[in-house]
């Protein structure tokens, strides 16, 4: 065989390997490859990190303490129902994220069968912990990228369901910026790097921006503008307008998540001036419309239906909502109202009736039903704690310490009461 033939075969082999490697890279992380190629071939400016001026995320505090809406006993009863009693095998990231945003990373439980906030956070931030739960052959939750760590999200098994929900939930849980994040191969990343990857990755035309708004809002202020990985200028004004686009009922959880995110941006704007004056007024007007709709849409028993944006029409022509959808609307509305100024509230009597309905409904559910719909009921626990100007973990740990019966009950729970959420229905 001639040297020329050997040379041609070698070139062909190298070319084939390059094409295979390129195809695999695209399959693994198409956007990262696309960005890298664009930067090299089109001479685009590489993404520049956005300054994050704090070690701990901001906290938007509740504005009220209303024991006339939620008594200590009622709050304790609801929180007992929504403890994260997850089977450690194949824990669903979405369930863990919801548990963390409600209970926080500092939550501890006397029952060793209930994962602590720290354990839940490690499940989300350490690939080894995720593999312990899902097995070595499971597709990773954390995705190694050249610039950082991204999160696998969507409806696939073992994924975070919503874009940036992982980040927003850990942020609300009180995770620090320098908390390590261990991917399948990368061991040098932190939560701060995940924030930067989300900023680089963000596009305004994404289907869901509710959790991106929350995560960026709690890390970036007073920054109000930044440049994304596509070279486009982004701002909280643009995100707020994106949240308000479309029919109110069509957003996640009957449109209630976008309401909470918009209320959060208003509160942050009051302190850090992250919105223009015109956008502040536009968002406030949107929230006034929401207030007027839920005033008219509440049923006599206190719940709000999934079609609450129809106002009085929702009561006149009721939809056949299962209970969990009523819990979604009622719990989520109580949550954003707890951080809203009084002029955005329905009358007190309506808030009281909503709280009474959701308390009774939650307490009456069997444990397995709560776990089957955990993502929805977790909002109830968080909302009611906000109305008492407290945090679920703080209140629960003090309650158990000062009520011997509650402490004994929690510590002595049998393992078989901890129902596996892994076999239950997915929630948002």
From TrEMBL:
InterPro entries for this protein: Terpenoid_cyclase/PrenylTrfase
Domain of life: Bacteria
Compositional bias annotation for Polar residues: 418-428
Region (Disordered), start-end ranges: 406-428
Name listed for the protein in its UniProt record: Pectic acid lyase
Organism: Maioricimonas rarisocia
